[in-house]
Structure formats: C-alpha cells, structure tokens
Amino acid sequence: MQYINREHIDKLEKLYRVNLINSLSGYKSANLIATKSKDEITNVAIFSSVIHLGSNPPLLGFILRPTSVVRNTYDNLMSTKQFTINHVNKHIIKEAHQTSAKYDGNISEFEKTHLTEEYKADFFAPFVKEANIQIGCKLVNNYFIEENQCRMIVGEVEHLFIEDDIQQEDGWLNLEKAETVTINGVDAYAEAKLLDRLSYAKPNKKLTSILNEEK
Amino acid sequence: MQYINREHIDKLEKLYRVNLINSLSGYKSANLIATKSKDEITNVAIFSSVIHLGSNPPLLGFILRPTSVVRNTYDNLMSTKQFTINHVNKHIIKEAHQTSAKYDGNISEFEKTHLTEEYKADFFAPFVKEANIQIGCKLVNNYFIEENQCRMIVGEVEHLFIEDDIQQEDGWLNLEKAETVTINGVDAYAEAKLLDRLSYAKPNKKLTSILNEEK
C-alpha cells in the first residue's frame, strides 16, 4: 500500500492535489442545480456535493465554494430562496460538465448547452427538462464553514418529479433505472450497477437480500 | 412523469418516506468510519454522507444523526479528536451494512463483523484492514444543523493509505479499480463503471475525453 502523509499532501502540485483529495470521499452525487435571478436570468451548474440531511422534514444540502468570486447560484439563492436539483444521467454528462465553465454572469448556461429550462408546479426556478429526477427546493438555511470559507446550503424538498418506472413499491428510487450517474474526483463520470439491497441490520440477525421483494 | 408535492410527502408512511427521500440526493459515498474511545473500545459504522469540502487544506465532512440517543462515534470523536474513513468495497458490503445494527455501547462492531482493526502511522483510531483506501482524519470542527438536530463533522486529512494500482499519474484515484461501492437510498449497494473523464470546461471550448491520457 502507498502511504501519503499530511506533510506530503501540503507539498503536492495544486492540480495533482485537487485530483487526489477530490477522490477521497468515494463516489459523489451528480446534480444540476438551477436558479433564476429576480431579473429572470437563469443559471444552472453541476454540483457533486448534494447530500441527504434528513427525511422528516425532507432536507437536502450542498456545498458552495467561497463567495469571494461572483457566484450566480449563491446570489440567486439568497434573493429568491428557490432552487432545483436535477439528477445528471448518462445521456447528458457532457452538457452537465460544460456548465462548470466560467461564463459571464449575464449569460445563462442553459443557452450555452443543450440543457432545457422547464417550468412547472408554479415554481419560479427552472427544472432541467432532460433530468429523470427533478426536485424543487426552498432555501431554509446556510452554514458558513470557517475552515475554508465554503457554505453548506440547506433546502427543503417542496416538489418532486420522477420519470415512470423508477420508483419501487416501498418508496425507493432505482437510480440505475433512472440512469443517474456518479462522480469520481472532479472530472470522471461513472454509471452504477446494483449489487444488492440488504435487510435492516439487527444484532445477531443474518442479513438477507430484499431485492426479490421488489415489484 | 410522476409528481409528488410536499403535502403528499408529509403524509407518507415513515419507511416509504425514508426510502424515497434517501434516494433523492443521487448516489452516495459508502464509507466505514472508525473511532476508539479513551478506554480503548473501538467503534466502526457505515456512513453514506461523507463529502469533499476542500482540497487545500484537505477537508472532508460527514453528517451525524441527532445525538439524543447514545452515539459512540460522536462521543469518541469529541474525546479523542481522531477518526478514520475507509472505503467500502464490493467484497465487504454485508459486513459494512451490519455495522448499522444497534449494538450495545460496550461491544465493538469489529468483534461482531469480520472487519479487522488495523493500527499504523502511530494513529490512535483503527483503520479498517479490508478497505483499499484508508484515511486518517483529525477532527477540526462540527456544525449543528438546527433544522433537524444533525451535526456536520469536519475533519482534516492527516494520513492516506491507498492500495497499489489505484492512483493515476495526475493524482486521481480510479475508484473502479479500488472496487469502491456507492449507496442508493438506505440499503442498496452498487458498483460503478467509468464512462469518461472530461477536460476542464471553458466557455466556447469543446470538451474532450482525458481518459486516454492516463498511464
């Protein structure tokens, strides 16, 4: 096994360190977060940091980089309190990745990619039409992470749109059927194949597969 | 497309809602977090919420559920300031899942599963021997999330152990080679297959695959 200590990490060339450290969390979620400014300029950007925070109330979080540079997503969030989270699927990885380019603030990434704005459920922020799972969220809080000046944005789920045949009878969404992808590091996209679903774990009880219980 | 609004979500049966809302973030990371108490009782538990917070300094975060119930991981973190993050791979998904059973606080999950404690780099907390990527972290902060009484734990990377042939020349770790798995919802484990690595995105520049640049 290769051993790397902190002193070594701190001396690494910047891009090498970015590639290495971004690989450490394991696989990351791949989502397009879309917002619209009060003067109706839309914004969509890829995020690999969306996480589940809780089911009741239904809460999701994501990390925003330091806001010293102009961050359209942050400004729109604060002024409109609305955003959508849209799963990246294998058919749109290039369009999704392209949203990470630094476009001028007056230009919508929707215009510059083949991603399509979709408006529904009387929601102000656009959904991404190409996504098979679309989530409309209300901003509820944001936490400043003093160690590196990032912010964790917390949103409550208000609207859900799910393509047919993805949800199972017990509520679970089969992300393989949704063709949702996952991110490895900063620039690698992977598709996932289900290995198993396991029963609720209890002390001294053997785990069983619950895959065949699905309908 | 199926539409579910917030009113509907709030009326769902509990387990159905847990399955649904836990699927919304997209694929989650699968890690075993291990700690040791001051009186030398070890603890290891699976977490699907480990995220990348930043590369310089190298920071990772994860979410701890409300601490009203006894949480060994939390107590050990606060008293020792050390933990390890260990990637779950496809060969240990059952052992990893079993760590979520509610064992008595005096019992180590290492004893109750076939996972093995490993001590190295003079680190107090145990690494999980079976993991191909092992990370020793120092606790640096924790943020109380008032919306649902969770905490985001922030750790700095101090030690890294990476199995041979996983790291590429540009620093990136190929998680497919590491056989790292990803989590869909609360109980589904998936393996991932690389689709592509894409070049750094710039306005008006065509993306290219950087996969063939790897050695």
TrEMBL record, chains A, B:
Q: Which cofactor does it need?
A: FMN
Q: Which family does it belong to?
A: Belongs to the flavoredoxin family.
GO molecular function terms listed in the Swiss-Prot or TrEMBL record: FMN binding; oxidoreductase activity, acting on the CH-NH group of donors, NAD or NADP as acceptor
- Protein name, UniProt field: NADH-FMN oxidoreductase RutF, flavin reductase (DIM6/NTAB) family
Q: Which InterPro entries match?
A: Flavin_Rdtase-like_dom (IPR002563), Split_barrel_FMN-bd (IPR012349)
A Pfam family that the UniProt record links to this protein: Flavin_Reduct
Flavin reductase like domain location, by residue?
32-167
Q: Which UniProt keywords are given for this protein, alphabetically ordered?
A: Flavoprotein, FMN
